[in-house]
Write a structure and sequence with these properties.
Blueprint (H helix, E strand, L loop, with lengths): L3 H12 L7 E11 H12 L7 E6 L3 E13 L2 E15 L5 E18 L4 E13 L9 H16 L3 E2 L1 H13 L6 H8 L3 E2 L3 E3 L2 E11 L17 H28 L3 H16 L2 H4 L10 H22 L7 H20 L9 H8 L19 H6 L21 H9 L1 H14 L9 H21 L5 H19 L4 E4 L2 E4 L6 E2 L4 E2 L9 H6 L1 H27 L2 H14 L18 H14 L3 E3 L4 E3 L4
Helix pairs in contact: 4-10, 4-11, 6-7, 6-9, 6-11, 7-9, 9-10, 13-14, 14-15, 15-16, 15-18, 16-18, 16-20, 18-19
Length: 619
């Protein structure tokens, strides 16, 4: 009998409900920056450029006008300010008017809140009126009355509809959920609610709150070390990456079209190119693929850079048209990252459908598929990032009587020697894989082509005279390191184009994946002149951006030259090692080899294609 109480206790524990699963609140912050909120208020009050807002007008002497609207955060509260003019007048004895007029500024302290329909609204907590000298005016009664009667109600009617961003974010999260975890995600999304609105230094934050399980994920066995991909796996990996690259191109093009600013466009260009360069070590088999979702790491890194670019554009007022699109886009990306980090058991993944829906937050009415992937030249992409017009295809065996295309006529008129030399060199170098006996003649012709292309590129760019000789040495040195001045090779008894494991082709080893959309892939493969010009354009772009910057920061032009090649070979991030003024830099055998070749050419050395090196002149 003495064991009965223990038995009953155990029985009650077994029959009782299981302990509740611990729950946690996850916040997805919807951040509304002051620049967006200001534009929303300007639009609400219908302020036209250079014209005041007529809040009240009754005859010529009774009025309240506002202009120069501002919105900012001060002492933890949002403030609406504007310059105002007011008048109150009446006729005296039916003759001359008596009028009181005021000119100064109005400062309203606001309290934001969300209504039940997901609209952001304001309550007015305080009003302050100043004259044009920033002092309290002697006569304020009639101004107070006009402001409270005509300005306060207009502001309290303001609403910013956030239901669409909320719906889009939820839709994107659904599209990025794995099928096996879709039901669990739905149960989480059903808990979605609005938290207390708060203020930070950037604007107003509307927290979207979700309830998720607080249990730590079950421990998983350590995955074995991944081995580099074999060719079949590389091809499959490229297919997986195609939707992500198409998405990034779509976003970058839309943002570059909206941000009419050279600096911002340069940042977007670097983001796109850098993200593509990151794939190359995987394609060459030098770096293993992340286990699980291979897009995840690439997405998170690129996303952090992209959101910073968009935020800077918003701060500078560059997002003028439909700014709420960018709010939705940025906050959807933040929500994906936050939910993946806080609740990995929900199986969030970067799916094609999720990317497609996310991209369409920027262009909801756009007809094209945001994930359309092809290898064609994209004229809009080239135009947005200031690429020179595409040259005409290399001349084929055409009758002399055929009229030349307009673009070729332009070059024939202004650079007739270059055009004639180009055509002749192309014919002689086309599909030529030289034997040892032909190597000297081949080297002489290739040197003529590289020199002509370098000269043409210098004519198209206004370089400081110090850098002209640099570029004339930089182009042949880069070509020697990249391909040993080869465009073609023999493969299985057939002449083909030179191609690396990473997909870089031709004389200048231009990577097809990195420069997709900017250059014609087939011409890069088969036209030595086109390939050389493309490489020269890329080198010139990198010299003017990274070479100049490295020279300035390190106070050493040699660092600028080395930085230019490093970026050409490894992408924009490779320039970082050359930006320091002093201190040791990590050694890199390839960069050291380039520097020896460059110095040899600059010293008057001769290219030796048998050894792919430089023969220095006798002292």
């Amino acid at each position: 009998m003495r064991h009965l109480p223990i038995f009953l206790t155990l029985l009650l524990c077994l029959l009782a409900d299981p302990p509740p699963v611990a729950a946690a609140t996850l916040e997805l912050p919807l951040t509304l920056r002051t620049s967006l909120l200001k534009r929303a208020l300007v639009r609400h009050l219908d302020q036209k450029e250079g014209q005041p807002v007529v809040l009240y007008q009754e005859g010529p002497f009774r009025f309240l006008h506002s202009e120069r609207i501002q919105f900012f955060i001060k002492n933890g509260s949002p403030h609406f300010t504007c310059h105002g003019r007011a008048g109150l007048g009446f006729k005296f004895l039916g003759m001359l008017p008596l009028a009181v007029q005021w000119s100064g500024s109005i400062d309203l302290t606001l309290s934001p809140y969300m209504d039940k329909d997901w609209h952001l609204r304001y309550r007015i907590l305080d009003s302050t009126i100043y004259d044009d000298e920033g002092k309290t005016p002697a006569i304020t009664g009639f101004v107070w009355d006009l402001v409270k009667k005509f300005l306060h109600p207009r502001l309290e009617k303001f609403s910013l509809d956030l239901s669409l961003p909320q719906q889009e974010i939820v839709g994107i999260l659904r599209a990025c959920s794995s099928e096996t975890e879709a039901e669990q995600l739905e149960s989480v999304l059903r808990t979605l609610r609005v938290g207390a609105v708060r203020i930070d230094s950037f604007g107003i934050v509307v927290p979207l709150l979700l309830t998720v399980d607080d249990n730590p994920p079950a421990a998983t066995a350590r995955l074995p070390e991944e081995t580099p991909l074999v060719p079949e796996e590389i091809e499959a990996f490229q297919k997986v990456m195609e939707p992500w690259d198409a998405f990034l191109v779509f976003v970058v093009k839309n943002a570059a079209a909206d941000f009419v600013d050279a600096g911002m466009r340069e940042e977007l260009f670097d983001l796109l190119i850098s993200s593509r360069y990151q794939l190359l070590p995987i394609l060459t088999g030098d770096v293993p693929v992340e286990p699980g979702d291979p897009l995840r790491a690439l997405f998170i890194e690129a996303w952090q850079e992209l959101r910073i670019i968009i935020e800077h554009a918003e701060e500078r007022g560059l997002v003028q048209e439909q700014p709420l699109r960018y709010v939705t886009f940025v906050n959807a990306g933040d929500a994906l990252v936050a939910l993946d980090k806080a609740a990995p058991e929900l199986g969030m993944r970067i799916s094609s459908e999720g990317l497609r829906r996310w991209a369409r937050t920027l262009q909801p009415t756009e007809g094209e598929d945001p994930l359309q992937f092809d290898w064609d030249v994209d004229p809009m992409l080239r135009d947005l990032f200031n690429f020179a017009p595409e040259p005409e295809p290399a001349p084929q065996s055409e009758p002399e009587t055929m009229p030349a295309p307009r673009s070729r006529m332009f070059w024939n008129i202004f650079f007739p020697e270059a055009c004639a030399a180009d055509a002749d060199l192309h014919k002689q170098l086309d599909r030529w894989v030289p034997d040892l006996d032909d190597l000297l003649k081949y080297q002489q012709l290739m040197e003529q082509l590289i020199t002509a292309v370098a000269d043409d590129e210098l004519r198209s760019n206004n370089l400081d005279s110090r850098y002209e000789a640099v570029f004339q040495h930089l182009l042949p040195a880069t070509a020697l390191i990249e391909s040993c001045w080869r465009q073609y090779v023999r493969r299985d008894g057939e002449i083909s184009f030179l191609k690396s494991k990473a997909g870089s082709v031709g004389l200048m080893q231009i990577n097809q994946n990195v420069w997709r959309g900017f250059y014609d892939v087939e011409r890069l493969r088969w036209e030595v002149g086109y390939n050389t010009r493309a490489g020269a354009q890329i080198l010139m772009r990198y010299l003017k951006k990274y070479g100049f910057e490295a020279t300035e920061k390190s106070e050493d032009m040699n660092n600028g030259i080395r930085a230019t090649y490093a970026v050409y070979n490894g992408g924009p991030r490779a320039a970082r090692r050359f930006m320091k003024q002093d201190g040791p830099r990590p050694r890199n055998a390839l960069y050291d080899k380039f520097w020896r070749v460059y110095q040899g050419i600059a010293a008057g050395g001769t290219v030796n294609l048998a050894s792919c090196a430089i023969d220095l002149p006798d002292a």
